Amino acid sequence: MDLSQQSRESLLPNFLYSSVATRTMGIERFLNRTPSLQAADPSPAVGGDPAGSFLIQSPKEKIEMYSPAFYAACTAGGIASCGLTHTAVTPLDLVKCNMQIDPAKYKSITSGFGVLLKEQGVRGFFRGWVPTLIGYSAQGACKFGFYEFFKKYYSDIVGPEYATKYKTLIYLAGSASAEVIADVALCPMEAVKVRVQTQPGFARGLSDGLPKFVKSEGYTGLYKGLVPLWGRQIPYTMMKFASFETIVELLYKHAIPTPKDQCSKSLQLGVSFAGGYIAGVFCAVVSHPADNLVSFLNNAKGATVGDAVKKLGLWGLFTRGLPLRIVMIGTLTGAQWGIYDAFKVMVGLPTTGGVTPAAAPASEVKAVA
After folding, report:
1. d(CA 165, CA 362)
2. Closest among 207, 236, 220 to 86, alpha carbons compared
3. Residue-wise over 209-238: b if at least 16 C-beta within 10 A, else e?
4. 10 Å Cβ neighbour count for 323?
5. Backbone dihedral region of 263: left (phi > 0), alpha (psi from -120 to 50 degrees) or beta?
């Protein structure tokens, strides 16, 4: 084994991703070869191995795991994942926000679209798309990039044995830490987006909406909704990442007979979308009360959390606009994981999740200690 391959393997912790040995044995079984034959003839076949060309093999990836290039790739994947998907569902988000702010006028999803079409025309469905694109691209960059960083960081702190035993806590801690940073990047654009979408005549978009907002409430007003945004997004993101990792692992364990390393890329990406959609349903329910608060606070100048609770009521906080948000967030989260993992595959990285972490043997842990 040459030095470069040793270096790549050292950057691939077996308690988060499949080990090289496991991958090699799986490929050997798939090709009906034995380890002894491989060892006797290590030279590759002329022209490569077409039978294994569809396999995702981490040791041959174009980017080293946990290198600066790896985190840059995850950041870029997050930008594409969140920016594009949130912009695509702007019409749904627009109706949802107006249902939360003015339920008497926007009584249902269908009537909400009808009101918007009648009052603002087709162009009105995409009002606020620029702050949406910029804000959620910045959020996605921090969300996915820092999640990968903190997941590795916390795993290294506790070590392989505890990272395996408490992997869900690693997912929760890593995603929460990442979202704290991501929301600081998102908050100003979210404030402008909600104001533009829910107050007709306030502004056409970001270019005139941001100066008006700052003139009215100052720069600090852009962060008025940060705490409720944390209240919405941190539980959402913790559920999004932890449930996704768990669901994908269960799908590969119980629903797909073929080991992940031997699945086609298209199948792996299909699993990513399915796992993301299911996780998105849980995300919508957990984060919906805070989503109502964010919409209320950003729409009304000088409003407080107490004002929101008093006007909406506890039942309204949990249920107003929820069915639409379940559809929107389920589709959104599934598409985000699909795009993110597709980007990772494109640059030569493995898809997220799906391999049960293997605990280090007790003798090995003692030997290291």
Report:
1. 13
2. 236
3. bbeebeeeeeeebbebbbbbbbbbbbbbbb
4. 13
5. beta
Of 269, 245, 227, the closest CA to residue 173 belongs to: 245
* Residue linked to tokens 């960059």: 141
Structure tokens that stand for 25 in this block: 């044995």
**Can you read off the two tokens belonging to residue 337?**
């994981």
Question: Could you tell me the CA-to-CA distances from 361 to 15, 23, 168, 170 in Å, in that order?
Answer: 12, 19, 20, 20
- Dist. CA 146–CA 149, nearest whole Å: 5
What is the token pair recorded at 331? 């589709």
Tokens of 234: 């941190």
Residue 316 amino acid letter:
G
C-alpha dihedral sign at 297, 106, 233, 180: negative
pLDDT digits (tens, 9 = 90+) for 105-153: 888 888 989 998 998 888 889 999 999 999 999 999 999 999 999 999 9
Cα 269 to Cα 263: distance, rounded to the nearest angstrom = 10
Rounded distance, CA 272 to CA 284, Å? 18
**pTM (predicted TM-score):** 0.73
Where helices occur in the chain by DSSP H, the ranges are: 3-10, 20-30, 35-40, 68-78, 84-88, 90-101, 109-120, 129-165, 167-198, 206-217, 226-250, 265-299, 305-319, 322-346, 362-368
Q: 3-class DSSP state for residue 262? A: helix
Cα(138)–Cα(179) distance, integer angstroms: 11
Whole-angstrom distance, CA of residue 339 vs CA of residue 50? 26
pLDDT by residue (tens digit) across 195-221?
998 888 899 899 999 999 999 999 999
How far, in Å, CA of 341 to CA of 265, rounded? Answer: 10
